[in-house]
Design goal:
The protein is an alpha/beta fold and 394 residues long. It is built from 11 helices and 6 strands.
Length: 394
């Protein structure tokens, strides 16, 4: 059904990198969410009031908050789709994150209010009037949310849309919360004088709060900047290394300016004998390929490497062996040799994982102490780096 809706309602639905297509996907998801959640809110609120059930009323308000989130998201999609202008040269894509963060705060506020009401219901419980037809209506609402979770996930995966993927997660949480509500109705038949409804209502509100907090954390991580996924990193590296002149890739950085707007840079190692014009043409070709196929605006810096120097090969391999012995996941790049009148100078960068147990000073001391040469004739100049992407190339 989801694929049918997408194909019928979204022109050029396969071109998910196109801004107008992404907007259509987001609009479809938001409109469907508004309709479904508004219906579920009205249905559950009526049932909750008829049965005097706080857990059902809390679940109804959860659907209302989801509806509001969809409305806010719909506005966010249109704001994020606005083209770049003088004041925002990178576009308005991050507005999607700002809107999502506001929606997550609203969800948390609703959850706190529901928790307060549920705790009051624990101390002043009301008798729930059980009705089998109403029970099955709630069960049907669970199935609606199961479909919505799959629907959002399909749209989100197709467009790499964080709001739609978060909505899918939220719908899965709604399945759990409504299931808890159904359980509270059944338990109230067994323990009629126990404040089951209030306890379950409090549990539902905690689940809603957890969902809102998770969404807020996801958006804050994106705004602050987090590593780009390993799949994109690997594809960029593979496209560069597909050129036989490229010997290696490192220092890959991707800046996320919102869906569909990524800007990055990387260093490409080339044979030192390659001409300046040739290196420039290769960098241009790689940048264009990445832009056309992955929609990432890349700037490539070329590093010359002398692969024919036996002294360079000797010391490079010696340090690689030392790093392997350390077994700390450290990798090396930009290795080169310089000389002055008295010393051989080894210059290189080390990429150190954030979880590495060794300090930079310990790593440097270990390398300097174990190099097989006269310390007086050798100097190391080490630059320590951390990865900016997942699956950072070595």
């Amino acid at each position: 059904m989801t694929k049918w809706l997408v194909q019928k309602l979204i022109p050029d639905s396969n071109d998910t990198k196109k801004e107008s297509v992404r907007l259509a996907y987001g609009t479809l998801g938001s409109v469907a969410g508004i309709v479904c959640n508004l219906f579920l809110f009205a249905l559950k609120l009526t049932i909750g009031m008829m049965m005097h059930a706080m857990a059902i009323t809390a679940d109804a308000l959860n659907n209302l908050s989801d509806c509001i989130t969809c409305i806010v998201s719909l506005a966010g999609y249109h704001m994020a789709a606005r083209p770049a202008d003088k004041d925002h040269p990178f576009g308005h894509g991050r507005m999607e994150y700002v809107i999502s963060f506001g929606a997550s705060i609203l969800i948390c506020l609703v959850a706190l209010e529901l928790f307060k009401s549920s705790i009051a219901s624990v101390f002043h419980p009301e008798t729930i009037t059980f009705s089998l037809p109403l029970f099955f209506i709630l069960l049907a609402s669970v199935l609606v949310k199961v479909w919505m979770a799959a629907f959002y996930r399909y749209l989100g995966k197709a467009t790499d849309n964080t709001i739609l993927l978060a909505s899918s997660q939220d719908s899965r949480s709604d399945v759990l919360t409504t299931s808890v509500t159904l359980l509270s109705i059944l338990l109230s038949l067994i323990w009629k004088n126990a404040p089951v409804d209030g306890i379950m209502g409090a549990l539902v509100s905690i689940l809603i709060l957890k969902s809102g907090f998770s969404l807020a954390k996801e958006i804050v991580d994106r705004i602050l900047g987090r590593p780009v996924d390993a799949q994109l990193t690997s594809r960029i590296e593979a496209m560069i290394l597909a050129h036989p002149e490229a010997l290696g890739v490192h220092d890959l950085i991707i800046h996320d300016y919102g869906p569909g707007k990524k800007i990055g840079s990387a260093h490409v190692e080339l044979e030192s004998t390659m001409s300046f014009v040739g290196a420039h043409q290769l960098a241009d070709a790689c940048e264009q390929e990445i832009r056309d196929q992955l929609h990432v605006d890349m700037t490539l810096h070329t590093d010359p490497v002398d692969t024919e120097d036996p002294q360079r090969q000797h010391y490079r391999q010696e340090i690689l062996d030392l790093l392997k012995e350390m077994n700390a996941g450290i990798t090396m790049h930009d290795f080169r040799i310089d000389h002055d009148e008295e010393k051989i100078i080894l210059i290189f960068d080390l990429l150190v994982p954030f979880e590495c147990p060794l300090s930079q000073q310990e790593i440097a001391n270990r390398i300097n102490s174990e190099l097989k040469c006269d310390p007086a004739s050798l100097e190391t100049r080490i630059t320590f780096d951390h990865a900016f992407t997942e699956g950072e190339p070595s």
